[in-house]
Amino acid sequence: MARYGKLAEKKVKKVMRERKRGTLRSGSSGKKVTSRKQAIAIGLSEARRAGGKVPRRKSASRKK
Q1: Intervals of the chain under pLDDT 70
Q2: Does the predicted TM-score (pTM) go above 0.90?
Q3: Cβ atoms of 54 and 47 closer than 8 Å
Q4: 61: number of CA atoms within 13 Å, CB side?
């Protein structure tokens, strides 16, 4: 079974393109995003907000 939905795929694709062009900015600070991992996280976050099929984020307590 697929872990991520089509909406998540589209959002991440859009964000990665923005990152490549140098137009992707992070949330509150507005700094330019250059990290690939951060760009993917932003895309998944957008998809989550839009109601797409995206697994929950791991909580801080589980990481330990």
Answers
A1: 61-64
A2: no
A3: yes
A4: 0
